Amino acid sequence: MFAHHRSAGTRRPGGSALRRAVALGATTLLVWTGGSAALAPLAHAGTVTPTVHCTLPAGQGEATGPQQMNVELTPDVVDPGGKVHAKVTLGPSPATSGLSLNDVPTTPSLDLAMSGGATGTVTVTGPQVSLDIPSGKPIEIPPYEGDFIVPADASGPVSFTPLRNLTRTKVLGGTYETPCVVTAGGGSIGTVTVEGSAGQPATLIAPTTPVRPSTAVTLAGSRWTPSATPVPSLCAADGGGCDPAKFASSTLAIDGSGQLTGNAVLAEAGAVPDGSYLVKVGDGTKETTAPLTVRAFVPDGPRAIALSRNSGPVGSVITVTGSNYFQDRWINTVALDASGATLDDTAVYVKSGSDGKFRVELTVSDPAIASVQVDEANDPATVLTTPFTVTEATATLSAGTAKVKPGGSIGVSGDGWPSGVTPSAALCAADGTGCDAARISGSTLRITADGKLSGTVTVAGSTPRAVYALRVTAGSSEALTQLTVSPTYLVLTPAAGPKGTAVTVLGQGFAKVATVSIVGLRADGSQTSDPVRTKVVGLDGAFSQTFTVKAADTVAIRVREVLVNPRTETAAFTVQDGTVPAGPSFALSPPEGPVGTVVQVTGRGFAPVATVSVTGRTADGKQTSDSYVTRIIGLDGTFALNFTVRDPATKSIRACEVLVNGKTVQQLFTVS
Predict the structure, then answer these.
(1) If 33 and its partner were Cys, which of 92, 147, 154, 295 is the partner (CB 3.0–4.6 Å)?
(2) Torsion over CA: 282, 286, 287, 290 (sign)
(3) Low-confidence ranges of the chain (pLDDT < 50)
(4) How far apart are the first and last CA of the chain?
(5) Cβ(47)–Cβ(189) under 8 Å?
(6) In this predicted structure, what is the pLDDT of residue 198?
(7) What's the per-residue H, E or C state across 153-214?
(8) 120-125/101-116 β-pairing
(9) Contact call for residues 189 and 219 (beta carbons, < 8 A)
């Protein structure tokens, strides 16, 4: 379903203006008359002038009187299941129009009852024509033609008698039906002889339980014309009034062996009232029917509405949901100010679904909004209101480890953002000036209904090494957070703690297979008394090593390559009072991203010198198609490696010790 915005001053669907227009304009929907034409009489053609009783649409009443009907049938003889062509000419109807209108789309049809060699009802439907309808005068429909198929089990002379004519007119955005049923004075208009050897009749299987309007009806069958195009229509229970427009769409298909499969979606509840019908499928050569019961959703409790959030800043897009509404009804949603006055510019509308539920997005565009009101078809008895508070924009922003390589991705999060708005990112100078969106090559940022920001940003590969400010903007909200871009960097976990804290030092971008030394530094740059730790860098330039901070005067931890460049990186550490925190056992950075994301995988508490294997996993726990990555665990039980997610089926990343105690840990990863 789609939500539509309307401008101020327009009436909502279901409003009194529309009802008055339908009541007034429905008098133009009466199209039953036809111009007469001189036709040479044939053995299988005839004219009758029965009394018909017409039921006018939109509650305009009824009309009764004579109407001439002339029908010419060809050919004289058909095979069982064969096609008959009919030319129909109708005389003036007993009903007329109260208004004059031009170019009214009109589709006529005539139901014929069969007797003799076959029983049941067939329908002749003409093409849609545009009529000029004069007020108070008989309306003439040009003669029309159509085909129908006799039953596959028909045999011998079959006589055809008019049962009713049905006219469908399109006015004011709706389709209205006017049936004129023969009540007296009818009779046969012709006979067609059915003889010959027919193939086996087609079969049709339809649901035996009631189906709802606006839903897909699954159909199946066999012995249809191979590779033909099936067309579904909905008929009255007696087989008449068949209308393809009662189905909004169809995926029905016939394969090369004559098997029918697929579904046909019923039109909405206003076009398909509750009742017993026949669904008919024709492929141009064969057709058959099956019973079908239509029953619209009926609420089983009071109407209810809910907002995705009850407060938010201007610019937020809130989701309004409702349940227990009559299906296929216009639902009007609008914001009110503190006095209860309607803020027209906020109004949106949507139709309820086949389950009686609706969902629509309303933009918080006015700071005066105090509540949200919902009604069904402008009925005052259905009005529901729920409060909403407009708040000041207080967006927060955090960029995970706050360090990333050029071309790398980093997780971003925050709170207090306007929901329903797509955020954008840019990289600025450290003081927030000179922002450049081109330095962000990719983004999966999104804002949830409760105003939470999440996702990743990818820094362009050409971004120079520096300390930047990452800026995220959504609507009128904006926030910045520091982000270091460097080919080589350190991340300390934790970055602060009391004496005795075991800090996991994660390094990225170092020389492959180089040895690095890790030391604590004082404020004057000299080395602390804590023992030096060393680690061999992996083939991907990453390493992980635990360093225990015992010296109270430690202000930073430094990593230096030994006997290589030597490259040096330093990260600040703050000694605090308190209890030593426990380090993380397994982490992914970032925890989500598009296909191709390089994920930093770090672990702690694994078996020293064991081999760990890291793999991607699907939702059912199977290994993805991505290559696994292995690493020798350090003497301190830590490891660090880079794992590239290329398989879109990835749902998590798993680390498992190989040939030791088999310790396995797993974290979710979202492919965005």
Answers:
(1) 92
(2) negative
(3) 1-12, 14-43
(4) 25
(5) yes
(6) 61
(7) CCCEEEEEEEEEEEEEEEECCEEEEEEEEEEECCCCCEEEEECCCCCCCCCCECCCCCECCC
(8) antiparallel
(9) no
- Separation between Cα atoms, residue 368 and residue 361, nearest integer Å: 18
| Run of H or E including 352 | none
Of 336, 331, 33, the residue nearest 180 (C-alpha)? 33
Confidence (pTM): 0.61
Strand ranges (E), 563-596: 568-572, 574-575, 586-589, 592-593
| Nearest residue to 234 via CA among 318, 335, 125, 99 | 125
3-state secondary structure at position 66: strand
Q: What Cα–Cα distance (Å) separates residue 17 from each residue in 21, 442, 549?
A: 6, 49, 77
* Cβ contact 546:505 at 8 Å: yes
Backbone angles phi, psi at 527, to 5 degrees: -80, 140
Q: Cα angle at 313 between 396 and 361, to 5 degrees?
A: 115
Rounded to the nearest 10°, the torsion over CA 470, 472, 477, 481 is: -30
Residue type, 266: L
> What pLDDT, on a 0 to 100 scale, did the predictor assign at position 61?
79
Rounded distance between C-alpha atoms, residue 663 and residue 672, angstroms: 29
- Map residue 28 onto helix, strand or coil: helix
**Whole-angstrom Cα distance, residue 520 to residue 502?**
12
The type of residue at 401 is T
Question: How far is residue 561's CA from residue 517's CA, in Å, rounded to a whole number?
Answer: 6
- Return the residue matching tokens 């259905």: 382
Under 8 Å between Cβ of 209 and 217: no
Give, in degrees to the nearest 5, the angle at Cα 305 between 303 and 308.
160
CA distance 348 to 601: 46
Q: What's the farthest any 2 CA atoms get from each other in the chain?
A: 119
In single-letter form, the type of residue at position 192 comes to: V
Strand partners, 490: 507
Q: Are strands 453-459 and 440-443 parallel, antiparallel or unpaired?
A: antiparallel
Task: Say how far apart CA 366 and CA 594 lie, in whole Å.
Answer: 36
Task: Give per-residue pLDDT as tens, 645-657.
Answer: 999 999 999 999 9
pLDDT (tens digit per residue) in 618-648? 999 999 999 999 999 999 889 999 999 999 9
